[in-house]
Amino acid sequence: MYLILRPKAKLADSVVCFHEAGLSALGCGLIDTIAQPDVLTLLPSLYAFNPDLIVVTSTVAADLYIDTIAHIQGVDRPHTEQNRQASNLLFIAVGASTAKKLSSQHERVIQAQPSNSEGILACISHLKLKHANVAILKGKGGRNLINNTLSANGFAVKEFDLYERLLLKEPYYTDHFEAATIQCIIATSTEIIDAAYNYFEAEWLNKCQWIVVSKRVKQHLSALGANNIFTSNGATDSHLIAAANQVKGSQHE
């Protein structure tokens, strides 16, 4: 049984994908996402920054961005200047789902490979930009690596925190949970890992096989005492399923 640790909103889809792939999985939500109160003021602030490039780090950020567009269109239908400005924007999306959502509104959308902060930085590097204005649409407190690296390389960076991750008082499970049935834990971020270590016994967590989405997340988990860690090639459900099958195959060799 695979225990999938993801934000609550993403659990159901991930569990369905695993079951369709023939893998037994249980979803566990330790974090939920709540939109920031001022999220509807995003577009004026974003356009005032005059970005050359917009990085969107999650499907939640993409959804909230698109919601603000719908809100502006409902309040001020002409918004001709904003339409003209938005049509020329270049976006980098952290994953396939985020890219698909953005593509419903914009033509110039690049999907980062791999689907993590390192992939975003590699994508920006390939663009050969110099001294560009880079806006980052993200959750509060996340993705510091992108800002720090770009700022060090001379880019003007502005973060827009569209939502906040909140720890749930009790885990949300997609089905009945029994620790003894879990052979492998899948985690998609350092925040999720920290939440797990705040709730579950560290001794149990450190005995489990893990799948994480990047070397950076692996290093974070290793520092907490886990040893049996496999790194996937990305954070999408297809990447995680491929990693789960590799782990499953190696366990039966």
List keywords for this structure.
EC 4.2.1.75, ten-stranded mixed sheet, lyase, Uroporphyrinogen-III synthase, Rossmann fold, alpha/beta, 2 domains, about 250 residues, 10 strands, 11 helices
- In total, the number of domains comes to 2
Mean pLDDT: 90
Q: Order of SSEs, N→C?
A: EHEHEHHEHEHEHEEHHEHEH
**What about the largest sheet?**
10 strands, mixed
Question: Could you name the CATH class of the largest domain?
Answer: Alpha Beta
Order of strands in the sheet with the most strands?
Answer: 5-4-3-6-7-2-1-8-9-10
Low-confidence stretches: none
Radius of gyration: 19 Å
* Helix-strand makeup class: alpha/beta
Please give the share of residues in helix. 40-55%
How many helices?
11
* First-to-last CA distance: 18 Å
Pfam families: HEM4
Protein name: Uroporphyrinogen-III synthase
Catalytic activity: hydroxymethylbilane = uroporphyrinogen III + H2O
Domain Tetrapyrrole biosynthesis uroporphyrinogen III synthase: 20-242
